[in-house]
Amino acid sequence: MGLLSQIVFNIALSSSLYLLIAVAYSIYYNPSKNFDFLLAAIISSAPYLVYFFISQLKLPLLFSIFLSLILITLIAYFFQKTIFQTERRKGQPSVNTIIISLGLYLILQNTISVLFGDELKTISTLGLRHHISILGANGTYIQLITLLTSVLLFIALILLIDKTIFGKSIKAVSSNSQLSNILGIKSEAIILISYLLCSLVCALTGILYALDINLNPTMGFNLLLYGIVVMIIGGIGSYRGLILGAVLVAGAQHVVGYFIDTTWMNAIAFLILILFLVWKPLGFSGNQVRKVEI
Amino acid sequence: MDYLLHLVILIAIYTLLAQSLNLSAGYTGLISLAQAGFYGVGAYTSAILSTQLGLSVWVNLPIAMVISGIIALIVSLIALRTVDDYFIVCTLGIQIILFSVMNNWTQLTQGPFGIPGIPSIQLFGFSFDSKISFLFLSLFFVALVWIIVKNISVSAFGKTLRAISEDEIYSVSVGKNVYQSKIVSFTVTAILAAIPGVLYAHYISYIDPSSFTINESIFILSIVIIGGLGNLTGSFLAAAFLVLLPEALRFVGIPDSVAANLRQIIYGLILVLVMLNRNKQQKVLPLKHLPVAPINT
Questions:
Q1: Which of A77, A189, B16, B155 is 20 to 30 A from A271, alpha carbon to alpha carbon?
Q2: Which of A92, A111, A291 shows the shortest C-beta gap to B83?
Q3: Are residues B206 and B116 in contact, defined by beta-carbon separation less than 8 angstroms?
Q4: Cβ contact A237:A220 at 8 Å
Q5: Quick one: which of A159, A160, A126 has its CA closest to A141?
Q6: DSSP H helical segments within A213-264, as ranges?
Q7: Do A107 and B268 touch (CB under 8 A)?
Q8: CA-based nearest distance A101→chain B, Å
Q9: Cα–Cα distance between A1 and A12 in angstroms, integer?
Q10: Residue B285 lies in a domain
Q11: Does A100 touch chain B (CB under 8 A)?
């Protein structure tokens, strides 16, 4: 009984992180149609900033998190404004943007490595890692906080997309950016805000993950990739699909991790992606992936 | 002197990798992030066969190419159901799965400990032990792959690939089998990528998974892009430039621990700058040597 609830708890924890990144990513991907790997560097630089504020400047944890989120938003704004927006304006193919974002990812990730070193770092968390028992499973305070934050944030993001003018504008730009420009929705402004929102959520997810486990310069890449896999297999634009996708990826990872070896967790996520592309190329539901709309 | 030769051999290996990737990325427009994976498949196949079964390299090389080709064929049958950006994410997935296999299937690959003691290449009793002889061997393969890719690119099939990279829908509409052509292009790329893998394994005589990571894939892609998509000479020059770059850093006196990261920062920067300055019109290759069909009036 204890083992089962432990596995369920772990799956819930991982899937909540993947879900957050998948939702955040789709908020940006849908209107811009850009895969952006720079976000991987954003996921890992946010906890490093927190680490820096706490260990070097001796700031309190919550204030450090707040500061690092502000800084991350500024960084995201800078790159989006100077690089990605001009690329879109020039009408460059999206493949170019992917390669640029990969280049930027390399620059940021290696800058972190140079500044902080490649070894694992731990953010001192003042007892947040104390163990508690949750419905028979063994967890820590920070894991409980992560779970609650993710659920609340997920609901908030859904409400934002479905109930507000901003969310409707995102949907409008997603379905046809030129037409929405004609109707008075500034598509570039919407994409910019959606990117800031996306990097904010990604940064927060990265911080929560780092508080629970540890941080190293490449941690963001895996998290982001899981998020992208969840987004693709969930079907773009479907919340139910995203939840199912997140639970499926996290579930498969933990089952494989428990019965075979945890080192295979990386491969299994992509195996699921490939299996989906064979049997259900459209994801659980949602839009088709194809070259032309007819 | 030995060290200079070592660098030239590395340039040759990366030229091989970049030129084979150029076939799919440059000519067909299939940007792949799995090149280091197939490179690793080649290296590991030959390493395992020669250390455990004692087979000769000249037996291993075709086997490695076939295995890499089969994996690419299966993978491309699946991954090419998607287009553009999704395809890149798929190749990223393939890269990560291949890396996981190298890193985790410890019975076969010894995982992170790697495979030591890979014998050097022998041919008719001559051993390619010395750097200079190995250099000539790798130059032979560079020439071979160069000729193969060049010939494919100017053949009728190569023209089909170019057409796909320019306008996929149009290529379908004039009756080209786009799906099949892409599969062939991707598979040939992987088959050719196994060659530098085999060379690398027998040259360094020790391999571990860290040589075949996603960053390596991005590095190879950078070579192709910096050299110019569909430009084989450019690939060679870019390979030389990017391999020699860290040496320049060493001369300036930057410690090795930082130099590895700095090297990646610099090629990331070059990648971004090259992409930013690339004009949309220059996305496709110049078609000057293609015959122009007469217009019927």
A1: B16
A2: A291
A3: yes
A4: no
A5: A126
A6: 219-234, 239-259
A7: yes
A8: 8
A9: 16
A10: no
A11: yes
pLDDT at A278 over 60: yes
Q: How many domains does chain B have?
A: 1
| Interface contact A103-B272, CB threshold 8 A | yes
Average confidence score pLDDT of chain A = 83
- Taking the CA atoms of B6, B7, B8 and B9 in sequence, report the sign of the dihedral they define: positive
Question: What pLDDT is stored for residue B283 in this prediction?
Answer: 46
Please give the pLDDT value at position B196. 92
Domain that holds residue B150: 2-213
Q: Does A92 touch chain B (CB under 8 A)?
A: yes
Domains with residue ranges and CATH for chain A? 2-279 (1.10.3470)
* Residue carrying the six token digits 């293609």: B290
CB-CB under 8 Å, A229 with B214: no
Note the maximum CA span of chain A. 59
Residue A125 C-alpha from the chain's centroid: 22
Q: What average pLDDT values come out for chain B (297 residues) when binned by 10 residues?
A: 84 91 85 90 89 82 91 86 78 88 81 78 73 84 89 85 81 82 90 91 86 87 85 86 81 75 86 78 46 49
Which pLDDT score is estimated for B69?
92
Confidence at residue B37, expressed as pLDDT on a 0 to 100 scale:
92
Nearest to A218 by CA among A40, A37, A21, A71: A40
